[in-house]
Amino acid sequence: MPALRSDHVEVYVFRRRGRRVEFLVLRRARGRLAGVWQPVTGTRERREAAFAAARREVREESGLAPKRWWRLEDVLVFFDPESDALQCVPRFAAEIAASDRVRLSREHDAHAFLAAAAAGRRFLWRSQRRALVAVREQILAGGATARALAIATRRT
Q: Which residue among 22, 86, 101, 106 is the one 20 to 30 A from 16 at the CA level?
């Protein structure tokens, strides 16, 4: 039986422009998945908490400092043949201000802000398209679920 690991995080960054919600999508510049569009993704550092990794990855990959954060109710589980392990990936949603500007790292060569359906069409993985639906249902719909999934943060 493969081991269970939690080495990665995913973050679905969005902004509100009036009634319209736009999601940040990033295009990988190099490596095995060059040219693939994705949300913010990254690897946790040794002994790094998942939420700390999510904040760091958003800052490193986009230069953004979201004003609000939520965890998503479900995690992604997939088999990683390189490590012969099941990966358990915590997922987060993060809201930025409409006026915030992206500063890409060398890991990505393009970005766009798109409605959920358009963002989903760019994603390679069905699990990422399902996560966009989860953000809409769990976070953007508001209510008790969104409040329960909110992550309290200190302004730094």
A: 106
Q: In this structure, what CATH number is given to the domain that contains residue 42?
A: 3.90.79.10
Residue type, 111: H
**Structural domain for 132, as ranges:** 3-151
Beta bridge partners of 110: 27
List C-alpha distances in Å: 133 to 45, 107, 124, 136, 143.
28, 26, 15, 5, 16
Beta bridge partners of 87: 5, 78
Q: What are phi and psi for residue 28, nearest 5 degrees? A: -65, 135
Q: Kindly state whether residue 80 falls inside one of the protein's structural domains.
A: yes
Q: Is residue 41 part of a domain?
A: yes
Tell how far CA 78 is from the center of its chain.
16
pTM (two decimals): 0.94
pLDDT digits (tens, 9 = 90+) for 49-104: 999 999 999 999 999 999 999 999 999 999 989 888 898 999 999 999 999 999 99
11 forms bridges with which residues in the sheet? Answer: 40, 92
Query: Domain count of the chain?
Result: 1
- C-alpha to C-alpha distance for 109 and 92, rounded to whole angstroms: 23
